[in-house]
Amino acid sequence: MSRLISSLTDPNQLYLVSGPCAVESYDQMRAILSQKNAPTLLRGGVYKMRTQKNSFQGLGTNAYDLIKDLKKEFQFDFITEVTDPRHIEDLADFTSIFQVGARNMYNYELLKELALHQKPVVLKRSFSATISEWLGAAEYLSPLGEENIILCERGVRSFDTKLRNMLDLGSVIYLKKNSKFKVFVDPSHSMGLTPYVSDAAYAAVAAGADGLMVEVHPDPSSALSDGQQALNLTMYQELVEKLKVLAPLFNKTLKV
Ligand code: PEP
Ligand code: MN
Known about the structure:
The chain has 9 helices and 9 strands. The protein is α/β, with parallel strands linked by helices. Strands 2-3-4-5-6-7-8-1-9 form a 9-stranded parallel beta sheet. Helix 8 runs parallel beside helix 9 (233-246). The protein is globular, with a radius of gyration of 17 Å. Bound molecules: phosphoenolpyruvate and manganese (II) ion. Manganese (II) ion is lined by residues 21, 189, 215, 225-226.
């Protein structure tokens, strides 16, 4: 297993993965990495699974050198979604942790391939996956070792339409008591609207989450995807400062 700059194995840390929905430009990423409390666990979509074919699909191969160049200037572990087994080899060059998105949780061939690649995987819950189905998918990754499998609750479909999804914190509470995997929460895709994201993040910490994955953009109004749920850099700073205070109440220390 290749070593992460920041190991994810400490049960007493609260891991904050943050960054934009999609990698858009060098300047966008640089703005996020240049600030105080800059992420060392940096997320960013390179290949985006968009519901609409004509929506921005991610920079694809054009993001590869961009991330490699940023790594010359900044120290961070990069986490990105892998949508196609054919991309794994190339992404592995600059990616520390692979993400499997909600749309691919049931893609067992992709999971089997990732299980061979010696990198931790964040497995997002699919839109209406039961906890059993989610754990079943996680079993496909078991060759990686339980410490390298991270479940991520990102909200499920419900009857309600006010919010993008329904954040199922019950799943977090259940999984912390009944599974061996780390459990993260993505309050951004759960809530879908910026004003609600930070409060959902605090609730996730209280539910026992080992980590959070939060979308951050230096200028959400110009984002090419999911700008409506992104925190700007000021909001990100406030989130970090509050998490530093909150985490110790749950016997954890924040790791940005
Ligand atoms: C994402 O994290 O950018 C994403 C697309 O999330 P999800 O797969 O949970 O929809
Ligand atoms: Mn997104």
